[in-house]
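Q: Could you write out the predicted structure for this multi-component system? I'm mainly interested in how the pieces pack against one another.
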Amino acid sequence: GQQVMQIPQYQHVQEGEDFTTYCNSSTTLSNIQWYKQRPGGHPVFLIQLVKSGEVKKQKRLTFQFGEAKKNSSLHITATQTTDVGTYFCAGSGSNYKLTFGKGTLLTVNP
Amino acid sequence: DGGITQSPKYLFRKEGQNVTLSCEQNLNHDAMYWYRQDPGQGLRLIYYSQIVNDFQKGDIAEGYSVSREKKESFPLTVTSAQKNPTAFYLCASSIASHYNYGYTFGSGTRLTVV
C-alpha cells in the first residue's frame, strides 16, 4: 500500500534558526497536505499542494511539492517558540485516501 | 462557531469493557474519519464514512466498530476485541472524499484501559 515517510523524526533548533522537514512517498501523489499539532493538541490543517513543482508560502513557512509529485518539504525561516509542535505531511494517491507520515517533532530553544 | 466536538476528553475503562467515543460536527461535512495516534506512530486510519449509512474500514479496523446514522454524528466503539486500546483517538471531517480538502480535527479523546 501507499507509504509516506517523513524525516527527521525530531529536530531541535535555537530560536532564529531555520527548520526543514521532508516527506517522501512510495507512489505518485495526487496531492499533499501539511498539518501542525501543538503539544497536547490536535492536528490543524496548514495547506494543500496539488500541482507538480508547486511552491506556496505562508509568512515564514514555505511548502514545496516535487516535480515528480512523490516528495514534499516544509521550510520554516527564523523559527520562533510558537513554531513548536509536530508537523505532519499527508498524501493521497489515486484512491483519494489520505495517508499520514509519522511527523517531525520540532522543539525550539529560546 | 462550527467545528467538531469529541467527548469525553479523557476516558478510563477496565479491560474487557466496550466503550463508545462520541464525535459530532456542525460543519455540514459529508466525510468523517476516525484516527488513532500512538507516540511515534503518526495517525492511523480506523474507519471512514463518505455518506450517511455507509462506512469503510481503514488500515487498523480490527476491534473497532462505527455507525453513521446521521450526517453530524460518527461514534466509534472500541470493543473488548481490540488488543491494545489505550491511545489518543481523533475524529476528523472534510467536505468530500472524492477530492481531498483539508481535514478538520476534533480535540481528541485520550482512552486509557486498565
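A: Regarding packing and overall arrangement: The mean pLDDT of chain B is 92.
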